[in-house]
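Quick illustration, no need to memorize.
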Amino acid sequence: MKFVIQRAAHASVTVDGEITGKIGKGFMVLIGVSQTDTKAEADRLIKKMLGLRIFEDENGKTNLSLKDVDGELLLISQFTLYADCRKGNRPSFVNAGKPDIANELYEYIISECRKEFHTETGIFGADMKVELLNDGPFTIILDSEVI
């Protein structure tokens, strides 16, 4: 499982011309699920993500968490995080989770995050247009294989 976390001043996702999710200050998170991911791995990454202290305090130090700044979450599924570009010029996505399993884990992540934070989402499998004002820019990648 991979989370690409971008510290956002604001972000939104649109599907078929309609905004499906919109946040102010917080994290815009792209979520990739592999064939072998589990809820236990999701729990580990969620805990790590929600505890990240990457917002600036009064001294300009990245010392505040999402909770400290009353931040929001925008969670977007993105199977292309598992693109394999080692051969040729056309990426292979064989390592991405099958849609039914990936969607189940994506929905699980959403439900867990909603327990603590205002959480908006994209639509699984849809053609989405994502807008983001990356604050920093500040981007963190969490990968269940290395955490």
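Residues 2-143 form a domain with the D-tyrosyl-trna(Tyr) Deacylase; Chain: A; fold (CATH 3.50.80.10).
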